[in-house]
Amino acid sequence: MARKSRKEIARAVAASAPAAGMKVYRTAVYVRLSREDGRKIESDTVENQKELLEGYVDREPSLELAGMYVDRHVTGTKFDRPEFNRMISDMKAGMIDCIVVKDLSRLGRNYLEAGDYIEKIFPFFGVRFIAVTDGYDSLTSGTAEDGLVVPLKNLINEAYAKDISKKICSTFDGLFEKGVYLATTAAYGYRKDLEDSHSLLVDENVRDVVVRIFKERLAGKSLAQIARGLNADGIMAPSVYWQSIGVIHKEKYRNLWEGKQVRRILENVVYTGDVEISKTYRAYYRGITRAVSRDKGERFYVEGHHEAIIDHETFDRVQELMQETKAGYEAARQNLGGERNKREDKLQGLLYCGHCGNKMNLYRKTVKLVNGYGHYSTYVCRRAATYGEADPPKNVKAEAMEMIVMELLKAHMAVYVDARERMRMLNQKPEAAEKRSALKKELSGKKARREKIGGFIQALYTDFADGVFSEEEYLEMKAGYVSELEALDGEMARLKEEMEGLALDYAGNGEMAAAFGKYLGAEELTKEMAQTFIRKIVCYGSDRFEVEYTFAGELAELVEKGGDGAA
Predict the structure, then answer these.
(1) pLDDT digits 0-9 by tens, 146-198
(2) pLDDT, tens digit, for every residue of 311-348?
(3) Distances, alpha carbon 122 to alpha carbons 104, 129, 276, 434, 494, in Å
(4) How far apart are CA 139 and CA 136, in angstroms?
(5) What 3-state class would DSSP assign to 195?
(6) pTM for this entry
(7) Residues facing 549 on adjacent strands
(8) Three-state SS annotation for 332-399
(9) Farthest CA pair distance, the chain
(10) Helix, strand or coil, per DSSP, at residue 28
(11) Residue with the larger pLDDT of the pair 79 and 533
(12) Mean pLDDT (the chain, rounded)
């Protein structure tokens, strides 16, 4: 029988553990409460669940509390929950090997996923699972009985969740029909009535901004032009304004007006005094667990819901203008065979504005030309384009940019080829051959010494096992040998690297050589090529760029070595 370490014996004595040989499980207590549970069942409150489960763990000698995981106001129909995910991560890390819940519905109300966890995932990780009030314990459960009871209870839990979902959807539909405004925030230009949160009042602070947006669109200004004008006049974007008055508290927000924000305002019927409610919906009982858009005819439309900022005539005229613009783009596409501009973004994620540091995005357009229609693609700094600054690169044609990058890469490759050929010529000289021979001999000596030390360590262990050395003496001598081995490994690695650099076919660092070898002779830029050789391109204008190359350091080293050889 193997001896127990002193540490293990001490731990067993100090812990006053249960019966000898009984495994003590590191136990996670999992508590979940959805909004519906909290409103209906007092016994299912977080505090009551915690008290029940902590008491259960305390009474069970084989359980030791290792962590508490609490998901508040989270539905049981999905398993993507913050605390549940943290618990599963801890399980995978081996920090817990038992999970205790009040009942099976606390684990989840989706019977298929709950069944997967109980029957597959928990057993795979060797985790014991206990549902206290359901009397289920995976350690002691009988397969014949629980093989029927557990799936049945999970089915009942899911049926309950679907029934609750159906009732909630029905309740909301009734409220929508009455025109009850349930959105958490009011649309820009309005504010919630402090006495009735379902009513909207005009926000006089920004009423004029909404009116201005509609007037400028009627006057023929584009969405981007309207946004630039608002930014130039220092008018706060909606999210910034809401933060300034305490409606939202996010740290990150868009601090500038953009065309899409202007579009949302122009297309929102709320400014006419009407409301279109429930544009999206979820219905778990119908299998719709994520928000999806409702068809126009299924939405709830309430007229005269609140005070209007824009009259219906103005709103309708703006919608006509938006449709005319859209029809113009569609006509342009039809003139090009109905094809959208599908130009590949070959510089995706590589191009940055040299003024603000933002990424530059590829904008694809179909435009009217002198002799018809054509596709137009350009890289744009969104901040510069929106804010209307004069200096930043607001418009760099994609085709021109790709040609410039391709020429830069060709020059980059020419430098590599020149340095590679210089190195190969250098390595053909007699001096290189002599150095290769000397390095090979030195490497052979290091290998021999390494083998000897391995033998010394083996012999040292044998003497220690025979009682020739004490443990302290053995460890001290072994440490000396191990230290020498580590030094030898470092020296051998250096020698191998030097020998590789002196090879007749040396082409530089392995990864760099493979990359250049793959694309040498290429005439057309590809996305893969750009991603391989370029880390970043900083654009200061249409004719000034700074390029950060992937293999800049390795290539500089190769050039330096080749230059030494030429000298």
Answers:
(1) 444 555 555 555 555 555 555 555 555 555 566 666 667 788 999 988 887 77
(2) 999 999 999 998 887 776 666 556 555 556 678 889 99
(3) 14, 7, 47, 64, 48
(4) 9
(5) coil
(6) 0.47
(7) 534
(8) HHHHCCCCCCCCCCCCCCCEEECCCCCEEEEEEEEEEECCEEEEEEEEEEHHHHHHCCCCCCCCEEHH
(9) 104
(10) strand
(11) 533
(12) 77
User: E strands, 107-217, where?
Assistant: 128-131, 136-137, 190-193, 196-202
Beta bridge partners of 548: 536
Token readout for 231 is 């930014």
Tokens for 394, please give them: 């607001």
Whether the CA torsion 415, 416, 422, 425 is positive or negative: it is negative
pLDDT digits (tens, 9 = 90+) for 176-185: 566 666 667 7
CB 521 within 8 A of CB 529: no
Coil, helix or strand at residue 247: coil
Average pLDDT of the residues in 206-230? 92
Other C-beta atoms within 10 Å of 27: how many? 23
Amino acid (one-letter) located at 50: K
For 308, the token pair is: 């209007």
Residue with tokens 């901004």: 209
251 burial via Cβ count (<10 Å: 0-12, 13-18, 19+)? exposed
Alpha helices in 178-253 (DSSP H): 207-218, 223-232, 238-244
